[in-house]
Amino acid sequence: MNTKQIWSNLSVKDLERTTSFYTSLGFKSNNSRPSTELTSFIVGVNSFVIHFFIESKLKTALKGELANLKKGNEVLFTLAASSPEEVNQWKIEVENAGGTIVSKPQEFGDGYYGFVFSDPDGHKFNVFYMEGF
Fold first, then answer.
1. Which pTM does this prediction carry?
2. Which pLDDT band holds residue 62 (cuts at 50, 70, 90)?
3. Is residue 11 packed enough to be buried (19+ CB in 10 Å), middle (13-18) or exposed (0-12)?
4. Separation between Cα atoms, residue 119 and residue 110, nearest integer Å
5. How would CATH label the architecture of 7-130?
6. Measured between alpha carbons, how far is 104 from 74 in angstroms, rounded to an integer?
7. Taking 90 as the threshold, does the pLDDT of residue 72 lie above it?
8. What are the CA-CA distances from residue 47 to residues 1, 8, 17, 27, 124 (Å)?
9. What sequence ranges are listed for the domain VOC (predicted)?
10. 92 or 72, which is more confident?
């Protein structure tokens, strides 16, 4: 099988809060049609799409329970940074947007630097710099 694209679908409690959070981080809107059930963003140079559905919509589609983000996480996204300084700037912007810093920026061996944050719904992201990448 050959697929044209892959994207993620995550659940949120409040679309307006989610839209505001990711817009303030500079994510590009992918909302081609107004919706009360979905907000969507395009991320990175490869235009990865992240859809955020209101919880009830995604629960219905899955026909089951959603992950309890207070106990774990369904996925950890990594956002590539160009430098350690950019990692530090991301931390400031995440805090200003209302995100939670899970682990502060730190080195992870020679040439690796990053931190983890969660959005207002508990979805976790890793902002990471890798020397030479």
1. 0.90
2. confident
3. buried
4. 28
5. Roll (3.10)
6. 21
7. no
8. 21, 12, 22, 10, 19
9. 4-130
10. 92
